[in-house]
Write a structure and sequence with these properties.
The chain is of the alpha+beta class. It has a domain of 184 residues: FAD/NAD(P)-binding domain, CATH 3.50.50. It is 34% helix and 29% strand. The strands form 4 sheets. Strands 5, 6, 13, 14, 15, 16, 17 and 18 form an 8-stranded mixed β-sheet that branches. Helix 1 packs parallel to helix 3 and helix 7 packs antiparallel against helix 8. The termini are far apart. It binds flavin-adenine dinucleotide (FAD).
């Protein structure tokens, strides 16, 4: 049955990186996606979808040759404050001996760069088509794509996103935490420069982030909020929206003078109970777990999955050996659960308006800011660096 050693479903950032890394390690890989990515540029010159990537993610993307040379902005500071408090969290890259905390990268620039690398890699076969059925047998797995194409292989990596077909086809149980929010994403132009800083303000209804673009007066926006508020803000005219979002960020970057198209994404937090559901299948990226975007961690966690998977697979003659994956599954599931809980607790904590909670939060933030060792360790962890720095 096996034409390919490894099948990857989903050429999003996680699946594409995984396919390239495994092919670089010597595996014959086939990757399937329903469509080829297109470069998107909005009215303010950049894509509306941007992702914050850690130094660890950047290193992995660079190692497979898809770190883009355009469409990215580094940020050296992150400033977080809240609607009801007087204290703020201030993270600066210099505190941990770095020049940047991470990069904001246009999602479509990365996707196109990954697609070109897949197309030209000598050990990668690319198949375009909707996955409609999968058949797991004793000697391998067959994927049936729309139009009667069948792609067969020994081992399947499902990177087919939050609504994973593979996960549903295999009936993999999922644990879900209610979020009750949608994310409104757009791009704005501001009167004052962003100063290479990622600004995030926790509002009672949800966090609002202004993330720096290459143009110092342009920021990409991720604003989590209730569905009702999002509906109203999507329907506003541009001038009213600019005034409202400027007020929401306390005019830290001066007036908001222009806004691009606004998009909304329903938010869900979920993770699979078992990311290696059969001896021949591993789920990674959003197919394994989706978390709230407030910390910009989704792709970064997916790329951590890729690195962990690579550490297991490198040098192995065959991957369909359950014993190989026990530790991987334990660690990745525990990490997913931990991240989901942290996001849910942050949301709960900052959603409280009573005065006692506000006071406790402010004392906590001030104390945290003064504990340099703890703060720096958390910064290194968020950047995907080893404690002690790399
Ligand atoms: C508003 C917002 C902001 C975010 N900001 C950040 C951020 O700053 N940093 C960060 O790290 N993360 C961020 N995230 C999360 C991030 O977008 C996701 O974690 C990431 O896109 C997941 O990548 P993936 O490759 O696992 O899945 P996807 O990107 O969803 O890719 C899945 C791929 O599988 C293909 N596919 C699916 N089903 C089939 C099928 N049946 N047949 C064929 N192909 C199929 C799809 O076409 C797609 O190409 C954000 C999310 C949101 C909603």
């Amino acid at each position: 049955m096996s034409d390919h050693q490894v099948l990857v479903v989903g050429a999003g950032l996680v699946g594409a990186t995984c396919a390239l890394a495994l092919a670089d390690a010597g595996f014959e890989v086939a990757i399937v996606d329903r469509s080829e990515p297109q470069r998107n540029r909005g009215a303010l010159g950049i894509d509306i979808r941007n992702v914050a990537l850690s130094p660890a993610s950047a290193a992995l993307l660079d190692s497979v040759g898809i770190w883009p040379d355009e469409g990215l902005a580094s940020y050296e500071r992150m400033y977080v404050w809240e609607q009801w408090g007087s204290s703020a969290l201030d993270f600066r890259a210099a505190e941990v001996g770095r020049t940047e905390l991470g990069w904001l990268v246009e999602a479509s620039a990365l996707a196109v760069s990954a697609w070109q690398a897949l197309r030209t890699h000598p050990r990668v076969a690319v198949y375009l088509g909707e996955l409609e059925a999968l058949d797991e047998a004793a000697d391998g797995i067959a994927l049936e794509l729309a139009g009667d194409t069948v792609v067969a292989g020994e081992f399947l990596i499902a990177a087919d996103g939050a609504r994973s077909f593979v996960r549903r086809a295999l009936d993999v149980p999922v644990r879900t935490l209610a979020v009750d929010q949608v994310a409104l994403a757009t791009v704005v132009r501001t009167a004052a420069p962003h100063e290479d800083t990622a600004w995030q303000r926790f509002l009672t209804d949800g966090p609002l982030a202004f993330l720096p673009a290459p143009d110092p007066h342009v920021c990409s926006i991720v604003w989590s909020q209730s569905a009702g508020k999002a509906e109203r803000r999507l329907a506003m005219d541009d001038a009213a929206f600019c005034a409202e979002i400027g007020h929401a960020i306390e005019h830290r970057l001066g007036a908001v003078v222009a806004v691009d198209q606004r998009l909304s994404f329903p938010l869900v937090q979920q993770r699979v109970e078992q990311c290696v559901p059969t001896p021949r299948v591993v789920l990674i990226g959003d197919a394994m777990r989706t978390i709230h975007p407030l910390a910009g961690l989704g792709v970064n966690l997916g790329l951590e999955d890729v690195q962990a998977l690579l550490d297991v697979a490198r040098g192995q003659p065959a991957l369909a050996e359950p014993a190989l994956w026990a530790r991987f599954a334990r660690q990745r599931q525990a990490r997913s659960e931990l991240m989901m809980q942290i996001m849910a607790n942050l949301q709960r904590l900052f959603g409280q308006t009573n005065p006692l909670m506000t006071l406790l939060r402010n004392v906590g933030v001030q104390t945290f800011n003064s504990l340099d060792m703890v703060k720096h360790q958390i910064m290194r962890e968020a950047m995907g660096l080893q404690a002690g720095g790399t």
